[in-house]
Specification:
By secondary structure, the protein is mainly alpha-helical. Helix content is 57%, strand content 5%. It has two domains: 244 residues, Neutral endopeptidase, domain 2 (Orthogonal Bundle), CATH 1.10.1380.10; 74 residues, no CATH class. A hairpin with a 7-residue loop joins β1 and β2.
Length: 346
């Protein structure tokens, strides 16, 4: 782990990325022009770079709530920078105050004037509080029926006309998925989507941009300088009572394991798994399936239609033992990760 390189790069890489996305208004000052801002285009820019693009609307592909054999697109309310329960306590809450201080400290570290940061990011915080107010609580989201609202994109466009949904979804899902207006989408929280469109219509573009950029910056703090990480620790101390952060090498290991699970799984399997043991387990499972098949054939109390159905099901049984063989194939692993670029100086 090259801490020296992290210190050398400092915050310039992050600043360059922010500029490429249009700039953080509180940092840009009067240079930031609201006329050229559109929150949808900002989410597209985040998406292209590899950042989360779900700070206002969460777009996911997940299992259908009523049929787990189907996967589909879902529109949902986003997570917030601070727990909804905390942020709804308002500006007098120690947690909200700690969160606001965190925002200010990070902005000043990046070069903002403190007074400007306090003024502009207070508006950003108020916007996030409004997002919390229009979102559903954990208790409300336990009602699966309320979360299942499937409609086509054309129907979504007619009902929630403040956003160009077809363009938005295709841009967010690009290049993996392309949809047309007849595509079915589950709108998990219609009330949130409707309220969001109204909220955006009365929120200045500068406030929208400040909030979205803050969320991106917050997501990158762990990769930045020791000064930034200290601000994060101070916030976590207020929020969770922690007195120190994990060693940076541990965080790096966890990050690699999280972002490159197939490669780390391959390393683990090659070091700790016994191929002979897997072969023996596979043989044992084969014997069990054969025995089960023979038992079904010999049962005298089972009618033939039921027996046929049971045999068909038994024939479809799949066994997953230990790990997939692909984890031992360097060619397959290389092809899967061929677009991955790792530069030790970045």
């Amino acid at each position: 782990m090259n801490k020296g390189k992290i210190a050398e790069l400092g915050l310039q890489v992050l600043k360059d990325v922010l500029v490429s996305c249009g700039g953080w208004p509180v940092l840009e000052g009067p240079r930031w022009i609201p006329d050229s801002f559109d929150w949808e285009n900002l989410m597209f820019a985040f998406n292209r770079i590899g950042f989360d693009s779900g700070y206002l609307v969460e777009v996911t592909i997940g299992t259908d709530l009523k049929n787990n054999s189907i996967r589909g697109i879902q529109l949902d309310q986003p997570s917030l920078g601070l727990s909804r329960d905390f942020i709804l306590q308002g500006n007098e809450s120690q947690f909200v105050q700690g969160y606001f201080k965190y925002m200010i400290d990070v902005a000043v570290e990046l070069g903002c004037e403190k007074q400007a940061a306090e003024r502009e990011l207070k508006e950003s915080l108020d916007f996030e509080i409004e997002l919390a107010k229009i979102s559903s609580s954990k208790e409300e989201r336990r009602n699966i029926t309320m979360l299942y609202n499937v409609m086509t994109i054309a129907e979504i466009q007619e009902r929630f006309s403040g956003i160009q949904w077809l363009e938005y979804l295709n841009s967010i899902l690009h290049p993996h998925v392309h949809v047309n207006s007849s595509e079915a989408v589950n709108v998990v929280s219609p009330r949130y989507i409707s309220s969001l469109i109204d909220l955006l219509s009365r929120t200045p573009k500068r406030v929208q941009a400040n909030y979205a950029m803050w969320r991106v910056i917050k997501s990158q703090i762990s990769y930045l300088t020791e000064g930034m990480i200290q601000h994060q620790l101070n916030f976590h101390r207020t929020l969770f009572g922690v007195s120190e952060r994990p060693s940076r090498w541990k965080e790096c290991v966890e990050e690699v394991s999280s972002e490159l699970p197939i490669l780390t799984s391959a390393l683990y399997v090659r070091k700790y798994f016994d191929n002979d043991a897997k072969s023996a387990a596979h043989e044992m499972v084969t014997y069990i399936k054969e025995s089960f098949h023979n038992i079904l054939l010999s049962l005298d109390w089972m009618d033939e239609q039921t027996r046929k159905s049971a045999l068909d099901k038994a024939a479809l049984l799949e066994s997953h033992i230990g790990y997939p063989d692909e984890l031992l194939d360097d060619e397959i692993l290389g092809k899967y990760h061929e677009t991955l670029k790792v530069d030790p100086d970045e």
